[in-house]
Amino acid sequence: MTTAAIIVAAGRGLRAGGGTPKQWRALAGRRVADWTIDRFRDQVDHVVLVLSPDDDAAWQEFSDGDLILASGGSDRAASVRNGLEALVDRAITQVLIHDVARPCVSISIIQNVLAALETHSAAAPGLTVTDALWTGDDTVVTGTQDRTGLYAAQTPQGFHYEAIVAAHAAHAGGAADDVEVARVAGLEVAIVPGDLDNIKITCPEDFARAERIMRQDMDVRLGNGYDVHRFGDGDHVILCGVKIPHDRGLQGHSDADVGMHAVTDAIYGALAQGDIGQHFPPSDPQWKGAASEIFLRHAVELAEQMGYRISNVDCTLVCEYPKIGPHAQAMREEMSNIMGLRPDQVSVKATTSERLGFTGRSEGIASLATACLVKS
Ligand SMILES: Nc1ccn([C@@H]2O[C@H](COP(=O)(O)OP(=O)(O)OP(=O)(O)O)[C@@H](O)[C@H]2O)c(=O)n1
Ligand SMILES: C[C@](O)(CO)[C@H](O)COP(=O)(O)O
Questions:
Q1: Three-state DSSP class for 1?
Q2: Ligand 2: centre distance to CA 196 (Å)
Q3: Distance 375 CA to ligand 1 centre (A)
Q4: Digit-coded pLDDT (tens) for 39-79
Q5: DSSP labels for 32-53?
Q6: Best substitution site from 32, 99, 199 to test ligand 1's pocket, by max atoms within 8 Å of Cβ?
Q7: Is the CB of 75 under 6 A from ligand 2?
């Protein structure tokens, strides 16, 4: 069984307003699309992101990553077809099709749909309709509608890959969703329980609702880190992964990257998992001269294992020299690469201590860092 998820994200979000398409707007600290994509990453073998040809920045951003990209079509169904086509050489057996505009989808819905595909060629989440249903014009009720047997359809909708490819190829167009396409082709679609929180952001007010849902079981943790290394002989220092020529070096058991150590300790701190010295004892000769990225990678992996995502880190270096400003961007890029973050999630800045204290006398460099981790 080889599984894939197609996330259709090529719409313009006109009903949601706001100028920017809704999938690129912020929700609980990150973009709608980032939430949606992350829900599927660990649940399927491949994720296809269907992007509008107009979303240049998104194409650029995602082209280096692990996602398969496909170009959107003139309507949702055309975008789905392009997503299916992008998987043609991947030997996919089961595919989930999901709206990017449903970022609150739970892992259990995804797993339930996949489980149902073991015994059915199609499965999708539905919610029984519990409100009374009316017909109406803009002002008055014109009739009532029996709700018996009615469901509100959600995504992800799951299918055996070849079956849904054939169903889309044969469909005349105009379907509300992929379940309709599948049913026209004669597929039986199993209903799995939907979730009231699995809303589709459609109108402006849906953002506030989605924000409430996202935040209700969000665990946000802060950690701080502090480190100092003294100057000694040498012709360079390594700060936040960047080698900077200098008339002195920093002393330490490892490469003495005081900035990266503070960031690493901030992550351990947020996790309440001790500090670098506990995980990599200075008494252990194997860490002598070690590149500090080993420590940072370990902290990031630990965060992942414990279910946390790093939202941002902020690092301040305290020294008179070397001057940090010219290197700050390279430091941000280096650390964001190691942590698997975007550079805008990583801040590196510096201050002097006005020639006061040990940093002011250039006896060493100090560093402070804060990390914000989120579990949702
Ligand atoms: N040509 C299109 C149209 C829609 N979609 C996607 O289909 C899903 C459901 O569509 P909808 O909620 O209607 O999104 P939009 O089309 O973006 O919204 P609107 O109709 O308000 O413009 C969304 O994830 C949207 O990005 C798509 O990939 N390609
Ligand atoms: C696919 C869907 O989300 C199922 O409820 C829905 O049909 C999409 O509708 P839209 O009109 O494209 O928003």
A1: coil
A2: 15
A3: 28
A4: 999 899 999 999 999 999 999 999 988 999 999 999 999 99
A5: HHHHHHHHHHTTSSEEEEEE-T
A6: 99
A7: no
Report the distance separating Cα 38 and Cα 47, nearest Å: 10
Q: Which residues contact 6 (CB under 8 A, 6 or more apart)?
A: 48, 50, 70, 80, 83, 84, 86, 87, 95, 96, 97, 98
In 177-275, which ranges are continuous DSSP H helix? 178-184, 206-216, 258-271
Amino acid residing at 156: P
Domains of the chain: 3-216 (3.90.550.10), 219-375 (3.30.1330.50)
pLDDT (tens digit, 9 = 90+) per residue, 6-37? 999 999 999 999 999 999 999 998 899 999 99
Q: What is the distance between the alpha carbons of residues 132 and 144, in angstroms, rounded to a whole number?
A: 8
Distance CA 188, CA 57 (A): 40
Nearest-atom index, ligand 2, CA of 15 = 13
Supply 303's token pair. Answer: 């965060």
Picking from 225, 222, 223, the residue whose alpha carbon sits closest to that of residue 317 is: 225
Task: Give yes or no for residue 376 having a pLDDT over 80.
Answer: no
Cross-strand pairs, 71: 51
- Give Cβ neighbours of residue 138 (< 8 Å, ≥ 6 apart): none
Ligand-binding annotation for 147, yes or no, is no
Q: Nearest CA to 210 among 40, 28, 374? A: 28
